[in-house]
Amino acid sequence: MNRCYGILLLAVAVLMLGWAHGADAQAKPSGELVWALHVSISPSWFDPGENGGLITPFAVLYAMHDGVVRPMPGQKIGNSLAESWTESPDGLVYEFKLRQGLRFHNGDPCTAEDVKFSFDRYKGGGATELRANVQRVEVADPLTVRFHLKEPWPDFLTFYGTSATAAGLVVPKKYLEQVGDDGFKKHPIGLGPYKFVSFQPGIALVLEAFEGYWQKVPNVKRLIIKGVPEGTTRLAMLKRGEADLAAAMQGAVAEEVKRDPNLTLVDTRHPSMFWIEFAEQWDPKSIWHDKRLRLAVNYALNRQAISEAACLNYCPPAGVIVPRLMDFALPTEPFPYDPQKAKQLLAEAGYPNGFDAGLRHEVVSVIVVLGVMPRHNPLSHQRYPTQMCGKVTTRTVPADNAPTVVRLASQP
């Protein structure tokens, strides 16, 4: 696998950001890139109508599909399929004008009818909110579509034009009505920079550069995405030259990456969080109903040490579950690490010698400091909710906080 480092970065740009608008003429796509994805790939990811609410499927969705508006380089919501859009003075109508000459991977033209059809069939995350606020969708002409709201809704573009939902991604009405939902998952057709070639469950998704893409055509011709949940396996693939790119490298795996001169660990910050949820705090019979115990856990957590051990300090401590990268996130400092304060609160609550709470290894400092005894949990740390006494749920999104690795290959 002789692939150059520059090609690796270009492929990442295709998947995560999209291509810069108005690029100069370029050579035809060439070469191949293998991406070891941190989760198994599901065919449900191929259909925007069933997605939204989770960021991971967008690694595939943004490769094969495109949106009316969506996150673009330097813009949280930028024009994509729409060359322009307007909002009425009363905030009740959003009008989008599509670019001329847009074509799906099968050659069918993209029109306002496809935009309306894609929105009407959407049933993924956020669909309830969209239905509650959008009164109707109007096709004004083949390239103009209008969304009429029931009342002013400032969050409309957030729901329609970001990864909060996939409602703004456009699928071909004619093709989908011919093959149906199941047929579409077997061979999806979209407007994105890559077109579907094949999918073998548990093995790989194969995509190929779409030379009719309206923006800059990708440099990498063939993109192979393999679902590899185990970090050690992804690392082994990188070392053996079986993969060029891998994400969500944590702990000892990330440390090994840093020791390998042929690999580069890249800090990729995403708007997601690790947190602990006291799911039974509202139940008067639960041990977690006592605020002092919840505070004790907070003071006993050495967040900085967890960050350093789990993801080499790429996951800075936070005070609230709203990611600091999000607009208007409250800049709240986390509780300080104060084991003495934690012990004091524990004693005040009537548990000077600790108690059985079933916490997992992510919060092992609580166990050590407070005597909060864990029950063995064989589940992987990436699965939740956790089965444990007291129902303390640790929710994790490691893929969005851990760094990415690229293999430094020799120049051809």
What does this 3D model show about the protein?
The chain is of the alpha+beta class. Helix content is 27%, strand content 20%. It contains twelve helices and 15 strands. Strands 8-9-10-1-11-15-12 form a seven-stranded mixed sheet. α9 runs antiparallel to α11 (339-348). It is globular. 37% of the residues are buried.
- Written as H for each helix and E for each strand, in order along the chain, the element string is HEHEEEEHHEEHHEEEHEHEEHHHHEE
Residues in helices, as a percent range: 25-40%
- What structural category do the secondary elements indicate? alpha+beta
Instruction: Please give the number of β-strands.
Output: 15
Give a nutshell description of this structure.
The protein has 412 residues and is of the alpha+beta class. 27% of the residues lie in helices and 20% in strands. The chain has helices at residues 5-16, 58-64, 112-120, 127-133, 156-161, 173-186, 231-240, 251-259, 291-300, 303-311, 339-348, 364-370, and strands at residues 30-37, 69-72, 75-79, 82-87, 93-98, 134-141, 144-149, 194-200, 204-209, 220-227, 245-246, 263-266, 275-278, 392-395, 404-407.
Question: Keyphrases for this structure?
Answer:
single chain, disordered C terminus, globular, four-stranded antiparallel sheet, 412 residues, alpha+beta, seven-stranded mixed sheet
